[in-house]
Design brief:
CATH superfamily of the largest domain: SGNH hydrolase
Strand content: 5-15%
Strand order of the largest sheet: 2-1-3-4-5
Number of helices: 14
Shape: elongated
Radius of gyration: 23 Å
Number of domains: 2
Structural class: alpha/beta
Order of helices and strands: HHEHHEHEHHHHHHHEHEHEE
CATH topology of the largest domain: Rossmann fold
CATH architecture of the largest domain: 3-Layer(aba) Sandwich
Largest sheet: 5 strands, parallel
């Protein structure tokens, strides 16, 4: 091979590498400058620290709702606050901190990031879950965990205890500084949503069908005993003196279908930690017409569920002139 041929190949290889690097850099800029501000989830994540600070600094009783889209679409904050105010509870402030498709590991780091600081806890934290979301086996959105909910002090714990394999750890490491890679699933969904009519509705229905199929097969809740993330969350809550109420959310069922099961071990772990579990898997007021799909409530269901939630919270918030008592 002549030196000129070798030099030509090196030139083409260098050109390709530079072109790929420039393309990736441009895509990264677009992701951070255009796609992140256009994402409702990503925008509110950036607002949560100030929202948490505003909540804990208000006088009266402060309640933080933690969850995913079931909480977001199932709870009307105005209804909850109005119902609580009617029960002579004094000033009650309720705010919502949610992330779509989140689970126990994400919730733990959200609480660590937003609330678990000295003297910075709300009076009550309410975590809403369904099916196996308290289990380690729940699927994690690793890119979002890396970009928004963890800091360098968390990373050793994430690698050591929260990510189960090499693939997850590589994904997390790449996502720390590469926003495009971290948000690749959201980017794909946004692109498909803009190109395919009713894609979001189709995606939601597909996820609901998958959940329904799993339940029909009897795979309702993981019972493998993998509750390390839940145990760590509870241990940390006790350490900082943060009371938590866990609520089992009502999923849509057919007339003959029983609600999803609550794992006995998860119940025992919560009881041992002194945290309350409220079973709302069956809410008599809710009918099939109150659901948008197997998980999410529509407007009528949202009002009914919010009133029931306020009733539950009112029974656990006692306020006197000195402040909330638990």
């Amino acid at each position: 091979m002549s030196s000129s041929t070798f030099s030509s190949k090196r030139w083409w290889l260098g050109t390709i590498i530079i072109a790929v690097a420039v393309s990736l850099a441009m895509l990264e800029v677009v992701t951070r400058v255009v796609l992140y501000p256009a994402s409702k989830d990503f925008v509110r994540f950036a607002q949560y620290p100030l929202l948490a600070e505003s909540l804990v600094n208000r006088p009266g009783t402060r309640v933080a709702l933690i969850g995913n889209s079931a909480t977001e679409e199932g709870v009307d904050l105005a209804t909850v606050v109005a119902e609580l105010q009617r029960r002579d509870l004094g000033h009650v402030h309720v705010e919502m901190f949610v992330a779509d498709a989140s689970e126990i590991t994400t919730w733990r780091y959200m609480l660590e990031r937003y609330f678990w600081k000295p003297g910075f806890q709300p009076d009550l934290i309410v975590i809403t879950f369904f099916d196996s979301l308290l289990s380690d086996d729940s699927e994690k959105e690793i890119g979002r965990l890396a970009q928004f909910f963890t800091s360098p002090s968390d990373w050793p714990d994430v690698f050591r205890t929260d990510l189960s394999g090499l693939s997850q750890r590589i994904t997390f490491a790449l996502s720390l500084g590469w926003a495009t890679y971290a948000a690749k699933d959201r980017i794909k969904a946004r692109v498909l949503g803009s190109l395919v009519p009713n894609y979001k509705r189709f995606e939601s229905a597909l996820a609901a069908d998958a959940a329904r199929h799993a339940r029909h097969l009897g795979r309702t809740v993981a019972t493998s005993g993998n509750y390390h993330a839940l145990r760590r969350l509870l241990a940390r809550a006790r350490e900082v003196g943060s009371p938590i109420c866990f609520i089992a959310f009502p999923m849509k069922t057919s007339g003959s279908e029983a609600p999803y099961e609550l794992d006995v071990q998860a119940q025992w772990i919560l009881q041992e930690a002194g945290m309350e579990l409220i079973d709302l898997r069956a809410v008599p007021e809710l009918t099939h017409n109150d659901y948008r799909d197997i998980i999410h409530l529509n407007e009528s269901g949202r009002v009914k569920y919010s009133r029931r939630l306020a009733q539950i919270l009112a029974g656990r918030l006692i306020v006197d002139h000195a402040g909330p008592l638990r």
